[in-house]
Amino acid sequence: MSTATIPTIQATVRERTGSRYTARLRAEGRMPVVVYGHGQEPAHLSVDNEEINELLHQHAHLLNVVVDGKEETVVLKDAQWDHMSSNILHLDLARVNLSEEVTVEVELKFVGEPVGLKVAGAILEHPQDTIEVTCKASDIPEVIKVDVSGLEAGESLTLSDLVLPAGVTVDTETDTVLASVQVMAEIPDEDETAEAGDAEPEVIGRPAKEDDED
């Protein structure tokens, strides 16, 4: 990846830190971020909230952060979400050289329609939405595609089946399930349920009726 393809975002030094000040920043449409690493002091900055969210929506992992005319390349390391997991409140960014190895989370993109979905009651499940990968900063993929089109009903696709881009490795257990086609239990129709409901229920502990004596 060349430097020209890395998105650039302008940042401003935060004069103060603390919950009250960061709340004021967010009210002004700014997001607090911290840039650290490479033996330098952490930099407490803020960036435009809409701009950074748009870049993250585009699966950006590397950013060029410009502060007072000075540019640094950083990699997204961690995001703090609100209690509803709907809005990012804070970002941790690590200084990086394009030639060094980094470990980041990359989104999984499931493609294709499993043949197993033709079976009645079959559904596709994918418990993993991201995986942690290690590669050179210049080789971070935007997303990793997972082809599920060959999955039959009752089958699973694990990490060992995944085709990773060149230079990308994972440390996760290879038997980790990424996607599976499950068949839901058959639901009885209304007529069967009604017939079962018409029968007199047996009361536990009630003695059986005896024949009338002559």
Describe this entry's structure for a reader:
The chain has 214 residues and is mostly beta strands. It has 2 domains: 1-96, Beta Barrel (Ribosomal Protein L25, Chain P), CATH 2.40.240; 99-196, RNA Polymerase Alpha Subunit, Chain A, domain 2 (Beta Complex). A 6-stranded mixed barrel has the order 1-3-2-6-5-4. The chain has 3 helices and 13 strands, in the order βαββαββββββββββα. A hairpin with a 6-residue loop joins strand 5 (70-81) and strand 6.
The coarse overall form would be: elongated
Helix content: 10-25%
Note the beta-strand portion: 35-45%
What's the total number of strands?
13
Element-by-element helix/strand order: EHEEHEEEEEEEEEEH
What CATH calls the topology of the largest domain is RNA Polymerase Alpha Subunit, Chain A, domain 2
CATH architectural designation of the largest domain: Beta Complex
Termini separation (Å)? Answer: 100 Å
| CATH homologous superfamily grouping of the largest domain | Ribosomal protein L25, C-terminal domain
Kindly report the spatial arrangement of strands forming the biggest sheet.
1-3-2-6-5-4
The average pLDDT is 86
Structural class: mainly beta
Largest sheet, strands/sense/barrel = 6 strands, mixed, barrel
Unreliable spans are: 201-209
Supply the number of helical segments: 3
How many domain modules? 2
